[in-house]
Specification:
Blueprint: E1 3-12, E2 22-23, E3 33-34, E4 38-47, E5 54-63, E6 69-75, E7 79-90, E8 99-106, E9 112-119, E10 131-134, E11 139-152, H1 156-168, E12 173-181, H2 183-194, E13 198-202, H3 226-229, H4 232-236, H5 248-264, E14 268-273, E15 278-282, H6 288-299, E16 305-312, H7 326-329, E17 342-345, E18 350-353, E19 358-360
Parallel strand pairs: 1-16, 4-10, 11-12, 11-14, 12-13
Antiparallel strand pairs: 1-15, 2-7, 3-4, 4-5, 5-8, 6-7, 6-9, 7-8, 9-10, 14-17, 16-17, 18-19
Length: about 375
């Protein structure tokens, strides 16, 4: 059951096959897998319902078409096995070059360290690209924020305010994936990454489906050069088409980021999907992690998530408050909009999620 909570306001200034293991020594690159029809970004172990073990691995990335795939599983003692990859989720918005998609592969051993994905019928050594598998753990009583993507221009002082406000509100972990970004904003992200509260991933270059030359002059494969070459003013002159925004492909890029976030944060009690220009504000300024745990969950014990009211605070209307924070200086706002809601979800209780919607599991 979905519940819209009126006392919270979101403001914007955002076949299972038994595997037979054999000896094999792969060449390993812990980066991306690109087969032409499938571009795998991450491989994350999936916890079972009672949090006792990981019973599958979820591969998140971009797909073209509806090909069948197999997973090649590699163990720490250099054995390998092939299992069928089940197409789990595929985002269906628009007509992009490559769709956001997820595959799931069942596992029976605990020591799977790396994984590859190949077309059904292809030999296991048809690709030398192998992803490292990460295994999330249970994070009871913890709240995380998924801010899907950081790109273009972000003012450092506003980023600092956003992070510090959310830390005060009880957020324990942040995740974002980065495209080219002005260097001072990237320094802020690096600071919070070094503090241990931000997990930051780098989008591939070139972006999946694009020609190698469409790379914004970033010659290093993880695009780090982009974060040292561009100032705020220089980045403002770069057209949004570089980030595939606005376009159907851009929405699928965001969905890949969201899928990756939710799988990485699956062990958390709550995950909020908000952008860097969005703040979750309780009408009485209560810490929202405590409010979720102590007020909302006792009232709605079978909820899969909570939908937030959504208002715009318009800075062009001028300063309407006091202090030096953007939250206190700009307080005039529109009435809550009845569309484009954002959500705080309980990852273990949802079947699917998009930027503005969630699909709960049966019985929730």
């Amino acid at each position: 059951m979905r519940n819209r909570i009126k006392t919270i306001t979101l403001t914007l200034a955002l076949l299972v096959t038994l595997p037979l293991f054999c000896n094999y020594s792969p060449i390993i690159f812990d980066y991306y897998i690109h087969t032409g029809r499938m571009y795998a970004y991450s491989a994350i172990g999936k916890l079972n319902g009672n949090w006792t073990k990981h019973d599958s691995i979820v591969i998140t990335g971009w797909c073209r078409g509806y090909d069948l795939f197999n997973c090649i599983l590699f163990t720490s003692d250099q054995q390998h096995a092939r299992v069928k990859a089940k197409r789990w989720r595929q985002y269906s918005n628009g007509w992009p070059k490559m769709y956001a998609c997820q595959f799931i592969c069942k596992i029976t051993k605990k020591n799977i360290t790396h994984i590859s994905i190949v077309k059904d019928g292809a030999p296991h050594n048809s690709t030398l690209q192998v992803l490292k598998v990460t295994y999330p753990t249970r994070q009871q009583d913890k709240l995380a924020v998924c801010s899907k993507m950081a790109y273009g221009t972000e003012k450092p002082i506003k980023l600092i305010e956003w992070f510090e406000y959310n830390l005060l509100m009880g957020v324990d972990k942040f995740i974002t994936l980065v495209q080219p970004l002005n260097r001072d904003a990237f320094k802020v992200l690096k600071y919070y990454q070094q503090k241990g509260v931000l997990e930051m991933g780098i989008f591939p270059a070139p972006l999946p489906g694009e020609a190698p030359t469409d790379n914004l002059d970033c010659k290093i494969k993880d695009r780090k050069e982009c974060f040292t070459n561009y100032s705020y003013d220089e980045m403002k002159d770069i057209p949004w088409t570089v980030f595939r925004r606005p376009s159907p492909q851009g929405f699928h890029d965001q969905q890949v980021a969201l899928y990756h976030c939710i799988e990485t944060l699956q062990g958390y009690d709550f995950v909020a999907n908000v952008d860097f220009d969005e703040f979750i504000v309780h009408s009485q300024f209560k810490q929202f992690k405590d409010y979720l745990k102590n007020n909302l969950m006792p009232r709605y014990p079978t909820a899969a998530g909570f939908t937030l009211n959504h208002s715009y605070f318009i800075t062009d209307w001028g300063v309407s408050g006091d202090g030096f924070l953007q939250m206190s200086r700009f307080v005039k706002r529109l009435d809550p909009r009845l569309l484009n809601y954002k959500n705080i979800v309980i990852p273990s209780r949802i079947d699917d999620i998009t930027t503005h919607n969630l699909e709960e599991k049966t019985g929730i």
